[in-house]
Structures are given as C-alpha cells and as structure tokens.
C-alpha cells in the first residue's frame, strides 16, 4: 500500500532497513543465501490496493474466469448474462460469508454439465433438440437442484466445523471422489462429439489450437491462463472464413439488456426429482474446493512470511469454505445462473501475481455483475458456432476426467488394493457405461418422487461407490 511518510506505518509492513520508497504493493527486501537481495511484492487477503491497482487486478480476475464461466452457460443453455451476474454476486456473498478471510472467485463448474444436460433433456425435451441458445424451462427445473447442492455444501461445511475433516474423508475417500471425477468428465464424451459433428473440420481446428495454446503458453503469465479463450477465437475466426457464423444475433442484440432471470420451479414435481441427482455432484466439488483451499493457504502463508506478517492459516477453515461455496450456489440457484465452484484458474492467477486481496476479488465480482447487463456480449457468445463449442468440449471434458486420475495419483491411492480396485471399477463402469449404453442414461430402478423414471447413471455410480466404501468401513479387514 503506497505511503509518503513513515508514520503511521502501514499495517503488517516489515520494518525497512533503509528509507522506504512509495510502492503500490506491500514490499520488503528478502535476503537470499548468496547474500543478494530481491524485492517481494504482493497483497494479502486483508490488504486494500490503491484504486488503480484494484481496478486493473480486478479486471484481470474477471478476464481469467470469463471463458470457462461463459462456456458452461453455452453448453448447458443457461443465459450468459445471468450466469455472469450470478458469478459476480455469488463471489461477493461468498467472500462476506467467509468473513473476508478466504480469497476465492466463483465461476460456473464443469462438474455439473453432465447431470444438467441429462436432466434438461429428460424433463424439458426440446432444450437440446432445437437451435435455441437458451432454454428457460430447463433452467427453472435445474435451479431447484442447484439450491439443493447449496444446502448439501452448507450442511457438510457446518458438520466439518463441528467434527473435523476426517469424518468426510471416511465417507468420501479419494478413490470415490477421483473415480467420480473421471465419470463426470467422460460421461459427456458423446455430447462433445455430437456438437463437434456439426462441422468436424472446425471442431478439430478449434481442438488443436486450444491444445497448442495450453502447452506452449504454459507458465507465460496471464496468457498461459487463457488457452480456452484463444482456442475459441481461432475456431470462431476459422468459422467466419468458412462463412458459417451468424452475425445477425450480434446485430439484433441491444447494448443494454436485462438478464433473463428465472425463478426456481418449486411448484413443479419434476424439479424435486432433480434435487438428489444434482446435489450428489457435491461429491466431486467438495474435495476440489478443499484442495483449492490447501493450495491457497500454502501460497498466502509463504507470502506473509516474506512480508514479515503473521500466517493466515486459511487451511483450517475447511468447513467455512464449504459454507461459502453453498452461499454462492444459493445465489446462483435463485437467479438462474449455472452452478458454480471456486475457480482454480483464478487461484493460479493469484499465485502468479501474488495478489490475494479480498477487496480486489470483490471488485472483480462487481465488474461481472455489470457485464451481465451488456446485451452485445450475449449476442457475441450466442453467435459462436456449435462445432467450435464441440471442439472445446472434447478437450475440457477429457481434462475433467484426467483430473480425477490426477487426484487418485496425488493422494497415492493403492490401486493394487482389491478394495480400491472394486470401488473404482464399479463407479467407472456404472457411470460411464450407464450414461452411454442405457436409454437416456438411466438405470431402470424407479424410486417414487425422487427418481420415478429411473436413476441417472452418474448418480447411480456415486451411490454404488459410497455404499461399497461404507461396507468396507463397517466390516474392516483384520
């Protein structure tokens, strides 16, 4: 934080060995082993940067979350404006719920895509058979399920705050959560190829460009965090060269528009059938959110040590973090935005820039809210050819699956252990096989009120994995 005099001393700034120069970020001199020194600059969660830095850093956070958040809305036929606005407002509310202690930005989650597409296809049949880019009837039904997810996250968070994280790990060990992440990603393989089939050439040009950007821009600062955006731009330009971009939706869009808010269909029995299906996706998002918290805690405390400040230890706030996740989903669910999660992309950006300021994240949230009212932006997004989206989806859905593999590896799950093999294999076959082979991706086990038409494959896989694990918990081997 900039200062012109030595009194009063900015909060938490290390006592300088020489006269301190005005700076825009916290800065101290750190001695290296070789005797040289370097300046360490950064903002910790309770720091408030100058206005100029706040705006620029906030815009960078907005830019980082934008591609994935918008893409989820496009893939699930949610309103782009509402999704952006809900992302910003949800982030602000979550930061307040966490008592301004946990620096996270919330965007749309890919983990929910499979179950949302399945649900909307079942109960709002024309959502994915028409060329419409927004399906209000399907969104209203799914909103009830998103609110159900919020309730689950809040309850689990409160439980962890009371009994500790070990109880959660007992019910949801890495073999269950990792295998479910694989299922969530690969269950949509057919949907990705279906979109790509609109124009295979465009889809694979988009896919190749995205992969190349991901690999060759890695560790290149902000550029390295935007491969999806750059891949989409390449696909869009290539589509334009082929003459398959419909610019009329941009021309016909107003500069200012009211986002298409929808109220959850609480009075529709079909909506309550979706609550369990969508809520169970928390099996994947809860471990993901916890992992993000641990990563952020490590980087924040390292910076705090370098700046001569006390550690923040946000890793101890696992329960509060999940309550904040639930608060975000409550906002998203009531407004009609795509289901959210705290974003690893934005966490990475914070680590790169050494900026963990809560006020900066709230500024980014306010920018997202304002962006939700820009009609031309929605028009531009809606003009993206389906094949471009398909090319991106091939990559993104596969990455979700591979992240499940990475989770199993990072947690050192013993895949030579018969118990882990049994749980993992049952989840994979029921989840992936059921979604691809069974009619409408439903297991033919009708449960009145909850699953009257059958149990969705992803949900069935989660239930099988959890119950199988509990059997081994209750009946332990000697």
Mean pLDDT: 81
Shape: globular
Number of distinct helices: 19
Strand order of the largest sheet: 1-2
Oligomer: single chain
* Rg (C-alpha, Å): 23 Å
Total count of strands: 6
Distance between the termini: 59 Å
Helix content: 55-70%
Class per helix and strand makeup = mainly alpha
Binned strand content:
under 5%
Largest sheet: 2 strands, antiparallel
The run of helices and strands is: EEHHEHHHHHHHHHHHEHHHHHEEH
How would you summarize the topology of this molecule?
Blueprint: E1 26-31, E2 37-42, H1 51-76, H2 80-97, E3 106-108, H3 113-123, H4 136-163, H5 166-171, H6 174-186, H7 189-196, H8 200-216, H9 227-242, H10 248-251, H11 269-279, H12 282-306, H13 318-335, E4 340-342, H14 344-353, H15 358-371, H16 375-382, H17 386-410, H18 418-437, E5 442-443, E6 455-456, H19 457-474
Antiparallel strand pairs: 1-2, 3-4, 5-6
Walk me through what this model shows:
The chain has 478 residues and is mainly alpha-helical. The chain has one domain. It has helices at 51-76, 80-97, 113-123, 136-163, 166-171, 174-186, 189-196, 200-216, 227-242, 248-251, 269-279, 282-306, 318-335, 344-353, 358-371, 375-382, 386-410, 418-437, 457-474, and strands at 26-31, 37-42, 106-108, 340-342, 442-443, 455-456. A two-stranded antiparallel sheet has the order 1-2.
Features:
disordered N terminus; 478 residues; two-stranded antiparallel sheet; mainly alpha
Brief summary:
With 478 residues, the chain is mostly helical. Helix content is 62%, strand content 5%. A two-stranded antiparallel sheet has the order 1-2.
């Amino acid at each position: 934080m900039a200062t012109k005099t030595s009194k009063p001393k900015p909060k938490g700034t290390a006592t300088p060995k020489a006269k301190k120069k005005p700076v825009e970020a916290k800065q101290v001199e750190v001695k290296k082993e070789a005797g040289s020194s370097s300046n360490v600059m950064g903002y910790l969660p309770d720091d408030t940067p100058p206005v100029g830095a706040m705006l620029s850093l906030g815009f960078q956070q907005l830019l980082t979350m934008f591609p994935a958040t918008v893409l989820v809305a496009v893939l699930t036929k949610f309103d782009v404006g509402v999704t952006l606005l809900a992302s910003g407002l949800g982030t602000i509310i979550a930061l307040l719920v966490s008592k301004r202690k946990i620096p996270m930005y919330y965007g749309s989650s890919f983990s929910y895509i499979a179950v949302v597409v399945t649900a909307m296809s079942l109960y709002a049949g024309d959502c994915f058979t028409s060329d419409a880019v927004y399906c209000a009837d399907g969104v209203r039904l799914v909103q009830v399920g998103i609110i159900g997810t919020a309730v689950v996250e809040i309850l689990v968070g409160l439980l962890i705050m009371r009994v500790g994280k070990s109880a959660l790990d007992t019910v949801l060990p890495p073999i269950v959560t990792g295998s479910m992440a694989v299922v969530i990603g690969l269950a949509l393989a057919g949907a990705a190829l279906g979109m790509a089939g609109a124009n295979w050439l465009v889809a694979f040009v988009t896919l190749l460009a995205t992969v190349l950007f991901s690999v060759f821009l890695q560790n290149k600062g902000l550029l390295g965090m935007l491969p999806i955006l750059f891949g989409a731009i390449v696909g869009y330009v290539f589509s334009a060269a082929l003459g398959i971009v419909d610019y009329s939706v941009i021309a016909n869009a107003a500069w200012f528009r009211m986002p298409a808010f929808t109220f959850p269909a609480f009075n529709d029995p079909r909506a309550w059938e979706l609550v369990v299906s969508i809520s169970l996706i928390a099996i994947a998002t809860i471990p993901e959110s916890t992992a993000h918290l641990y990563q952020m805690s490590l980087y924040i405390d390292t910076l705090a040590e370098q700046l001569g400040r006390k550690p923040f230890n946000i890793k101890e706030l696992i329960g509060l973090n999940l309550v904040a996740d639930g608060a975000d989903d409550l906002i998203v669910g009531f407004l009609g935005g795509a289901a959210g999660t705290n974003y690893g992309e934005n966490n990475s950006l914070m680590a790169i820039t050494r900026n963990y300021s809560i006020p900066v994240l709230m500024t980014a949230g306010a920018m997202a809210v304002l962006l939700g009212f820009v009609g031309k932006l929605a028009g531009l997004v809606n003009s993206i050819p389906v094949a471009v989206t398909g090319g991106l989806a091939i990559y993104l859905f596969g990455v979700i699956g591979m992240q499940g593999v990475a989770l199993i590896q990072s947690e050192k799950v013993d895949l030579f252990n018969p118990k882990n093999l049994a749980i993992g294999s049952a989840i994979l076959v029921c989840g992936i096989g059921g979604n691809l082979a069974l009619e409408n991706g439903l297991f033919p086990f009708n449960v009145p009120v909850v699953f009257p038409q059958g149990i969705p494959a992803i949900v069935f896989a989660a239930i099988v994995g959890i119950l199988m694990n509990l059997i081994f918990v209750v009946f332990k081997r000697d």
